[in-house]
Structure formats: structure tokens, C-alpha cells
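>> received
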Amino acid sequence: MRWQVLVGPRAWNPSLWRSVEQAFVSHDLAFDLHRTVTADDVQHAVTCARGDAHRHFVAMGGDGAMNIVLNAVLAEPWDVPPVLGALPAGTGSDFIRMFAIPQNTSAAVAHLVGERVYRSDVGLLEGSWGARFFLNVAQLGIGGAAVKRSEHLRFLGPARYQAGFWSALPTFPPRLISVRAAEKTVETRALMVVIANGQFFGRGYNIAPKATVTDGLADVQIFSVERRSVPAVFTQVRSGNHLRRPDVRRLQATTVHISAERPTPVEADGEYLGTGSFVASILPGLIDFKM
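>> returned
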């Protein structure tokens, strides 16, 4: 087993890498380092690694970095599911909270030891942007608008997502949204629709406390809340108690069709995708996540 470590420009830090490298050596883990700049760089590194019969990949960064690596890995053909690991070094690493992997980058290297993996589902969004895999959480509505705005707030570091959310909220009214999941169709004015595979987002908010990555189902939540209620709602989201609210509706389905009355922002794993209607699907057991 030889880990292919992919590090983007936002996560690269020479002093941090030295401590990570020491952790690899101390745990007797073989690895190849790939410093990347673009998504094409990541794809090239993954393609070459697969050509050399490697199937163990680790994304060093946040959920967005892992999303880029996930899409590169799943663009390749595999006879058995590839193994994906995570070394948190970005502005938000929420997917790994489900597995109690530490947020400290060097300490997380210990979770790459051994063969224990968790066969995990992967989400897929198909819309005007094409097809995009996601591992953790996707959103339509204010969440998508927040991610788009946060792209201009990188100087705020980890606080940029919350800053993007609260700055976008005053000019983002609820809008008519249609969600079709299995035999149910919900049409309502909503601020946000969440499609969850994982449980956490936004640096620890328990957005989908009942979600699991092994059931083959999307955990869909429709927030038909007014803007003035958002502070109270997100206080409940922090602890996962928001599902008790009458203005938050939860659905489950393998495939979900979502549309809005006007172009509405969409994001996946903290990466802005675009606007418009889309289909979300959960694909069972596509990867082995390294615990």
C-alpha cells in the first residue's frame, strides 16, 4: 500500500508538510507527494497513479479539496472501489467528523495506518454544470449563495463561510422550490434545500443527524423558514435539533429532482457549481473511506 497524497495550493504550507511527512515516516507509511494547482493537475496525478496500480489516495485540505480529489478518482475506471483518506488542512473539514478523525493534520495521519475502511456511498449532482460527485453535503438556496460569496472572502480564513452566509442572507428571500423524492413532491417557499450524504457542515453544524453513508439514500431537508427565524434555526442546527421544527421537512430517496422558480445557487462540499434545476442521486458503495 502506497498513499498518493494530493495537496492543493491553499493547503500547502512547508512547515506543516514537514510535520506531516514526519508522521508518515513515524507510522512507516509509504507515500508519494503530489503538489497541484488546478483540478487538471489532480486528474493527471490520479490517472498516472492508477496507471502504476495505486488505488490509495489522500486529500490534504478541506472538504472542497476532498471533493476535487473524489471527482478525479471517480473519473477513472476501477475494478474495486478506490480508497480515499483525508488530512484536514483547509477552512472546513466536516465529513471526517463522522469518523472521529482529528482536525489536527499530523495527528490524522495515524488513521491512514492499517486496512480498515468504510464502504461509503457517494452523491452525484447533474445540472447545467454537468455532473459532479459529492461526498458530504450539497445545497440549493442561501447555502449556495453563501459559498459563492465566500469565494471573495478568503482573507477571512475559516470564518469566510459564515461571513458569506450572513452577508448574503439580507438580500436572499425565500423562493418557490419544488422537490420530488420517491413518490412525494413538495412545493414550498424555502430558503434552502440540503442534500446530505454526511452529517456535518459549516465547521461542525449537525445538519443531517440521521444521515448515513451506507444506506443508499439522500437525506433531504427543506428549510421553509423566514429570514428572521434563521438565527434561532441555526442555533438548533448546531446540535441537530432542527428536525423538530414544523418549517423544516425531511425526505429520503435514492434520486431527488429539484427546481426553483428562478436561478438559484447550488454548491457541493463547499464548491460553487452554478444555478438551475438539477437531479441528485446517491450511488451506493463507490469508495472505501479510510477510517
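>> The helical segments are 14-26, 39-51, 63-74, 105-108, 142-150, 160-168, 230-239.
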